[in-house]
Amino acid sequence: MFRRVIRTFSLVLLMLGVAELNARPATFLPAEKEVFAIGDLHGDFSAMVTILRAAGLINSSNDWIGGDRTFVQVGDQLDRGNSEKQIVDLFEKLIVQAEQAGGQVIVLNGNHETMNVELDFRYVTSGGFNQFSNYYHSGINDSEVTRLPTAQRGRAVAFKPGGPYAKILATHNSTVMVGQTVFVHGGITPAYARYGLDRVNDEISQWMNGYASRPSSVGGSGPLWNRDYGGTMSSSACNQLEETLAELGAKRMVVAHTVQRTVNQACNGKVWRVDVGLSSYYGGKLQAIKITNDSLIQIVEDDGSLTETGFGNGDGGQCQNLGAAPQNLAVSNLTSDSLTATWGSVNYATGYQLEYLNGSNWLPTRTAQLSYNLKDLPQGSTVKLRVKATNICSESNYSDAVEAKLTDAGTCNNAEKVGAITTSNITSNSFTASWPASSNANSYIPQLWVNGAWLTQQAVANNRVSFTNLAANSSQFIRVIAVNSCGEQASASSWVEVKLASGEQCNAPSTPARPSASNIGSNSYTLNWPAVANANSYIVQRWSESNGAWQNYKTTTSTSLTVSGEQRSTAYARVIAESSCGKASGASPYLTINLANDDGSGECTAAPAIPTGLTLSSGKLTWPKVAQASYYKVVGWNGASWEFYTNASSNTLSIGSDTPEYLSISARNDCGKSSYSDYIRVK
Fold it and tell me: Contact at 8 Å (CB) between 664 and 645?
């Protein structure tokens, strides 16, 4: 309830020539009465609609019937299945329908969404390529597209940065906080909490739109790949989680990414894991999590029944009357078409509704914060605003309305975004930054990164500024914003890091070219790549199928490295260059290596045989290696049926406390899969 219909109003606002408030939802949202969430879908449309129907959110025609409820999909709609396009398209329809009904559908990006924007198609099925084939035609000569096999080019056009489906993903957040619950695909560390969730969302969105380069937050340690909270939680992992939640002012985190046998919690309910492998690829349960009043947590089963978890009481302690209106509504940062509104807090409020008068209609926007930036307002107009406080079951009176006259746009032209920043005169506590003059710029605003936020410095009229009395031997980050004569700001420049300790600017080397392979054997190969200017060393990474992530193999100062110990018939490798000050480049395009089989060939010739001879000893399950097997799929008996347990990259599996009592194993490779082995009791 009490929610602004963001995208529906955006269309109205555009037609009326007034502010389009935000295409991407806010990062911090107020608590809601009922919030549902599910994990990875991986191209399984049938599983998606089944669990949404069980939760009472859509009907048999796949239309929204959830009213004012909130639904969050915690990333990984793509890959491994054949109906990805239907999933993305249905979510876009439900987003609009839910907003019209006073509810909201929030779709988050996971690591498989970013992999597709990177054109990393290792987990795409033939059906997944076919669904997007009509996006490519012979007139397209983009080398990033044409270097791919013809069957993959349509998908590349759709998902490359700036492509039509990449732009859809760009309207989705990568993390969101609803009340005191943080939702993210992988996991947020204290470092990324301090870095800023809104900053993460904005950087990934800008990259997907094709406006910026790939941000580091989509990498292996970022919020979409992190697995710190998906496995067995040690006391140190729980301490890290608590530090993150404290930094964000949150009570709990909901993550996906790592397959579980059922929705479960760790660290006394501070993290909830909702990736239950519900897609047909994994064959797991169909479950969702339900959070009522930001407190009571239940599990929605595939028949619509609710399983109690013992966490929360359902009232959240937040149903307090909100009588007093917010005070001190004020506006600042006025330009010809934008302003910032701020107001005072109200006790027991979980959110605020800021409203902008358009003709005789008040158009609302919702936020959990005490400020909001309105953009793209009619230039030079007079803006009238009011605000009220809300929580799950109440709302306050409106504040007194305020008016603000936007500056006259005159004949101002937009200032050009500042180009590359260079630094000089570096000492242990000072440096000078300079940049090319920007077209239509009247002044420049330099900003330094301080305590997790960009701190604005005094504006300068020329394209050079010096900083002194900085923290000795520290790393500093600077960016610059160009401003025109009407006070309108361009987008911020790319930031530059300056290491005062070494007295030099720390620049990352260029991204290495795709490596090549030689001396290919059955479990080893030699990786080779061209030297990169200013690179001091190189990190070789291998793709781990069992962990679903890139992992560092070795660091070398050479441009060649022998990789050994591969367990699969197909291997993937890439290279990262590092400078002498430890600054890393982007990862090279990955190389696919088809390892030689026992007969010397590099391709599988048939599906592997059924594993035999399973033996349990000293807490480990082992079996003879199956010829041509890339990996092994392990299922466990839950008392009623066999369900996915894990993937093993070798013929050894450690038995833990969460391992099912009975296990069975299937060998897999690119040519097919074996039947399952005879089961074995492991505990």
Answer: no
Give the integer Cα–Cα distance in Å for 286 and 302: 5
Strand partners, 538: 556, 577
Six-digit token pair at 360? Answer: 């005789």
**Interhelix angle for 45-54 vs 84-100, to 10°?**
30
The pLDDT of 595-602, averaged and rounded, is 55
Averaged pLDDT, 264-287: 94
CB atoms within 10 A of CB 98: 26
Could you tell me which residue, 6 or 165, shows the higher pLDDT?
165
- Work out the pLDDT band at 597, boundaries 50, 70, 90: low
The pLDDT value recorded for residue 22 is: 39
- Measured CA to CA, the distance from residue 153 to residue 426 in angstroms comes to 47
The residue to which tokens 């809104």 are assigned: 198
Q: What is the pLDDT of residues 621-665, one digit of tens each?
A: 999 998 888 788 898 888 777 888 888 878 999 898 888 999 999
Report the number of secondary-structure helices (H) and strands (E) in the chain.
Answer: 11, 42
Q: How far is CA 327 from CA 371, 401, 470, in A?
A: 13, 11, 38
Q: Which residues are catalytic?
A: 112
User: Distance between CA atoms of 229 and 255, rounded to whole angstroms?
Assistant: 8
Cβ atoms of 477 and 500 within 8 Å: the answer is: no
What six digits make up the tokens of 501? 């300790």
By DSSP bridging, strand 382-390 and strand 402-405 are antiparallel
Vertex 174 angle, CA 172 and 180, to 5°: 110
